[in-house]
Design brief:
Strands 3-2-4-1-5-6 form a six-stranded parallel sheet, with helices on both faces. Strands 14-13-15-12-11-16 form a six-stranded mixed sheet, sandwiched between helices. A five-stranded parallel sheet has the order 9-8-7-10-17, sandwiched between helices. The protein is α/β, with parallel strands linked by helices. α8 crosses α20. The model has no long low-confidence stretch (mean pLDDT 89). Helix content is 45%, strand content 17%. The protein is globular and about 80 Å long. The chain contains 20 helices and 17 strands.
């Protein structure tokens, strides 16, 4: 296991790099292999591995490319943090009068790496100034750099604390898996500029082979009007009558129990989403991403009718990946099922846990309620209790507990009071909400209040991947949804 220690300054006069070198030499004297890593460097250090110069970082950050910055920093870290390395010593940025953002930036990087933090200070004693600086790093483990000695290092190395799945780590693995999958993802809403920009971004990064559905002349005209030169690698499929006709017979066969006629099929196939869904059903593409200009119902209804549920699924549900400052949580179901019964709630819990595991997050499932344990009563609490029992019975291999209040599920201190014997409370990674009202309100409140990255909704339980976008989605949201869809397609 690679240990991570980030050295940060207490004020402008601290020689941060001298303290970092002292720690590196102290660790090496104990036979440890130490790599010095500077995510953002403001000086020339021949020993340190760097991701950005300060000038390059400021250029990227001024363009609003924080997640792209984190992604590149994570990629550099992954290259150096090999199994032969014992410690990665992460150097923060030194304070400077023309960089008022340094304190916040060091905190963001420390949280992105879930690193222990050592404060470099020339203060002889631990005074209030140092205490304030350390408290700004929240729940990360903290120390004073000058107090680190051989005994401290020995105890620290014995700690088996492993890195949580932070947003930067999650996105790194997301991109890596999507590139490896190399899947064909169709985008039926080519008339939306965000879709074109996302298709270009995915193509440039190699995340998927994107297919735009629409009239080629209109797509190129819109691209040209916005200064975009579409890559030759992006395929354009025109929804011609001849193309629609080839799906009439298979569509009628799929819907024969509902009495669908050939003429009705021809009418429905004029809808780009229905046409794209039939292409997916016939295996001509690997996944669909839509919803930038269509409602959730318009996006998923053809999938329910033509793709249908997977053999091991009783229903289709959804999850969101909530990228908080130090971890990624899975929320379900916040988009599809309005008021699931206990049986369906158990299904959602199991599917959400499996999705979490598929994307590298260890599932610890909290069944959310207004009650923790036996603290509350009522039909809604009883439903959650029953769903918890059903999920445990069906999947005894999973860590599932409920009912749990949100604070008891996420906060270790609250959990210690309310649910001290719970295997999930205080450390939940998967949050299953009792109904759509609760789930949708909670995820949007967190997303909009904290301005975090929220990836989803990702649909689970379908035979083939179809994913919905929010009509208020950004280009970044679309890119991540395409990546998620490509990974799902690789599983089918």
């Amino acid at each position: 296991m690679v240990h991570r220690l980030m050295v940060v300054p207490s004020h402008v006069h601290v020689d941060l790099h001298r303290e970092s070198r002292r720690l590196a030499n102290l660790m090496r004297a104990q036979g440890l292999k130490v790599i010095v890593f500077e995510p953002i460097s403001d000086h020339n250090d021949s020993e340190a591995k760097i991701s950005f110069t300060i000038k390059a970082f400021e250029h990227e950050f001024s363009r609003g490319r924080w997640y792209e910055v984190l992604q590149q920093i994570e990629e550099t870290y992954q290259k150096i943090a090999t199994s032969s390395v014992d410690v990665v010593l992460i150097n923060g940025l030194s304070f400077c009068v023309d960089r008022p953002y340094v304190g916040r930036l060091n905190g963001k990087i420390a949280r992105a790496f879930d690193a222990h933090v050592a404060l470099a200070t020339d203060l002889v004693h631990f005074d209030e100034h140092a205490n304030i600086i350390l408290r700004s790093y929240g729940d990360l483990k903290l120390a004073i750099a000058s107090h680190i000695d051989e005994a401290w290092i020995k105890n620290w190395m014995a700690d088996t604390y492993s890195r949580r799945v932070t947003p930067s780590l999650f996105i790194y693995h997301l991109m890596k898996k999507a590139k490896k999958a190399n899947r064909r993802i169709i985008l039926p809403e080519s008339g939306d500029l965000r879709i074109l920009q996302a298709a270009m971004s995915c193509t440039e990064q190699g995340l998927a082979r994107c297919i735009l559905m629409g009239k080629s002349t209109e797509i190129h005209q819109m691209a040209k009007a916005h200064g975009i030169t579409l890559s030759d690698q992006i395929e354009i499929i025109e929804p011609t009558s001849a193309r629609m006709e080839q799906y009439v017979k298979p569509m009628v066969a799929l819907r024969k129990e509902k009495g669908l006629t050939a003429e009705q099929a021809r009418v429905q196939l004029q809808n780009p989403m229905t046409l794209a869904t039939m292409m997916l059903q016939q295996g001509e593409v690997d996944g669909i991403v839509s919803g930038a200009t269509h409602s959730t119902l318009d996006t998923i209804r053809p999938a329910f009718q033509l793709i249908k549920t997977a053999p091991d699924a009783n229903l289709v549900s959804s999850v969101f990946f909530m990228c908080l400052s130090t971890r990624v949580l899975v929320f379900g179901d916040c988009a599809i099922n309005m008021n699931p019964c206990a049986e369906r709630l158990a299904d959602i819990a199991i599917h959400s846990a499996d999705t979490a595991a598929e994307f590298g997050i260890m599932p610890k499932v909290a069944m959310i309620s207004y009650s923790s344990g036996d603290s509350g009563v009522g039909a809604d609490v009883d439903k959650v209790k029953e769903a918890t029992a059903l999920a445990k019975k069906r999947r005894p291999d999973l860590l599932i507990d409920g009912p749990l209040q949100y604070d008891a599920a996420i906060d270790p201190q609250v959990a210690a009071v309310k649910m001290p014997n719970s295997p999930v409370a205080g450390d939940a990674t998967v949050f299953v909400f009792p109904n759509l009202d609760t789930g949708n309100a909670v995820y949007k409140a967190i997303q909009r209040t904290t301005h975090i990255l929220c990836i989803g909704p990702m649909l689970q339980g379908l035979n083939k991947p179809v994913n919905d976008l929010s009509r208020g989605c950004s280009v970044k949201d679309i890119v991540f949804t395409i990546a998620v869809t490509a990974i799902q397609a690789d599983r089918h």
